Amino acid sequence: MAEYEGIRTGRHGVFALYAHVVFVTKFRHKAFTDTHLNRMEEIMRDVCADFETELRDFNGENNHVHLLVNFPPKIALSKLVNSLKGISSRRRRTELPELAHHYYRANKLWSGSSFAGSVGGAPISVLRQYIEQHNRPG
């Protein structure tokens, strides 16, 4: 897969799909230090690589993380999100047992919900104007 200034190419198409994803800890427990966030970023990068997805940016605070992912159209964003949450929770549980008191029942680190929003490209108003300016063939 080649990449040209944020545009990726595959066998059957060219794409630039980005999503802003946010995960919050269960009950917004303040579970993360900078060391935890650094390891969380490594884990999330590994999961993204397994999905042929690129983690473009990562940041967080003590009770949530933000990700900017670039993903191919063959990847269902919901499956990526579920894997990111599940794998990161399992790895954190085994690697850092001191966080155990932040897990709630069934060893869940993350809240059951998440945020995912599409980002990038032109604003909708610009796209609508562009489309409206094109003439239909006679």
Summed up:
This is IS200/IS605 family transposase. This protein starts with a strand and ends in a 6-residue tail after the last helix.
- Write down the overall mean pLDDT: 84
Measured by DSSP, the beta-strand proportion falls in 25-35%
Q: Helical stretch count?
A: 3
Give the full name of the CATH homologous superfamily. Answer: Transposase IS200-like
Biggest sheet: strand arrangement: 5-6-4-7
Instruction: Count the domains.
Output: 1
Protein name: IS200/IS605 family transposase
Pfam families: Y1_Tnp
Domain Transposase IS200-like: 14-134
InterPro entries: Transposase_17, Transposase_17_sf
Explain this structure.
The termini are far apart. Strands 5-6-4-7 form a 4-stranded antiparallel β-sheet, covered by helices on one side. The chain has a 3-stranded antiparallel β-sheet with strand order 1-2-3, with no helix packed on it. 18% of the residues are buried. The protein has a single domain, classed as Transposase IS200-like (Alpha-Beta Plaits, 2-Layer Sandwich), CATH 3.30.70. The protein has helices spanning 34-50, 77-95, 124-132, and strands spanning 3-4, 7-9, 14-15, 18-25, 54-61, 64-70, 110-119. The longest helix has 19 residues, at 77-95. It is built from 3 helices and 7 strands, in the order E-E-E-E-H-E-E-H-E-H. It is of the alpha+beta class. It is elongated, with a radius of gyration of 18 Å.
